[in-house]
Amino acid sequence: MSYPPPIYDKDSGEVSAWLVAADSEPNVVYPNGNRVRYLAMGESTGGTYGMYHWEFAGPRSGPDAHFHKTLTESFYVLTGEVTIYDGTAWKPCQPGDFVHVPAGGLHGFRNESGPASMLLHFAPGAPREGYFEGLARVAAGETMGDAERDEFMRYHDNYWVD
User: Fold this and answer.
1) Of 130, 129, 91, 143, the residue nearest 112 (C-alpha)
2) What is the C-alpha separation between 37 and 86, in angstroms, rounded?
3) Is 128 left (phi over 0), alpha (psi -120 to 50) or beta?
4) 37/41 Cα distance (integer angstroms)
5) Cα 96 vs. chain centroid, distance in angstroms?
6) Mean pLDDT of residues grouped by 10 in the chain (162 residues)?
7) Among 28, 88, 105, 133, which one is least packed by beta carbons within 10 Å?
């Protein structure tokens, strides 16, 4: 495998880095206390990737088995224990564990043993923010009919496994 074609064509560098401080407020807070901070949105990375810091508050939560058709997803556990479905079984993952799921790969994640945190990486950089924010509104009591929910999931490239 070789390097991809250049995406920057100037002869000198430029000031373009950004910082999301560790103590910055979360972008989304779920009613159960889970928190999400947007570290790098697809919009700010030229569509190359998106990265999110996900903090589980403690109550059992997280999506069941599903897959994506347009993006890959990776998980890096920072604290606590996160149980990740790898397509065959739910496996407890500890700090430092990394799981990569190619497009089409069956997966899910949840906490089952208390507070935990992880990094979520999506490539390419799909607009996952609308998905996280929509789920938070539903968790707070907003209702969706079956057809509306199906369309929301399709739009956000989530296909559930029965």
Assistant:
1) 91
2) 24
3) alpha
4) 10
5) 17
6) 91 95 96 97 94 93 95 98 96 98 97 94 95 96 96 96 84
7) 88
Query: What SS3 string covers the chain?
Result: CCCCCCCCCCCCCCCCCCCCCCCCCCCEECCCCCEEEEEECHHHCCCCCEEEEEEECCCCECCCCEECCCCEEEEEEEECCEEEECCCCEEEECCCCEEEECCCCCEEEEECCCCEEEEEEEECCCCHHHHHHHHHHHHCCCCCCHHHHHHHHHHCCCEECC
Which residue is associated with the tokens 């997280």? Answer: 62
Contact 72, 123 (CB under 8 A): yes
List, in order, residues 6 or more apart from 24 with CB less than 8 Å away.
37
Has this prediction a pTM greater than 0.90?
yes
